[in-house]
Amino acid sequence: MIKPSNKVKVFFKNIGHWFKSLIFKVDDKDPKLLVLYRKGATKSVVSSLISIFVGILLGGVILFILAIASGGDISLKAAWEGFRLIFVGVFNTGRDLNGNLTFGFNSTNIGNVLFRATPLILTGLSVAVAFKTGLFNIGAPGQYLMGTAATFIVALSIPTTIVPAWIVWILAFIAGFLAGALWGIIPGIFKAVLNVHEVITCIMTNWIAANIVTSMFDNNKGVFKHLLDPSPTKNLAYLFKTTENGVATSKMGLDVIFPNSQVNGGIIIAILIAIVVYIILNKTTFGYELKACGSNRHAAKYAGINEKRSIILSMAIAGGLAGMSAALYYLSGNTEFYWSTYQSLPANGFNGIPIALLAYNNPVGVIFSGIFMSYLNVAGLQLKNLTPFNEYITDIIIASIVYLSAFSLAFKEILSSKIFRKKSKDLSQEQPQEILVKPKIIAEEEEK
Amino acid sequence: MSYLLQQTILYTIPLMIVALAGVFSERSGTINIALEGLMIIGAFIGVYFVRSIILLNVPLSFGQPLLILGMIVSIIGGCLFSLLLGFAAIRLKANQTIGGSALNLLAPALVLFLILIITSQSVLNIDSKYSSNDYFMLNQDDFGLGTKLENPLGVIGNVLFNKTYITTWICLALYLGLSIMLYKTRFGLRLRSCGENPQAADSLGINVYKMRYAGILISGGLAGLGGFVYSVTTVAASSNGDVAGFGFLALAVMIFGNWKPRNIAAAALLFGLLKCIAVGYPYIDINNDGIYFLNTIGVSQHIYRILPYVITLIVLAFTSKKSRAPKAEGIPYDKGER
Question: Can you give the pTM of this predicted structure?
Answer without folding.
Answer: 0.83
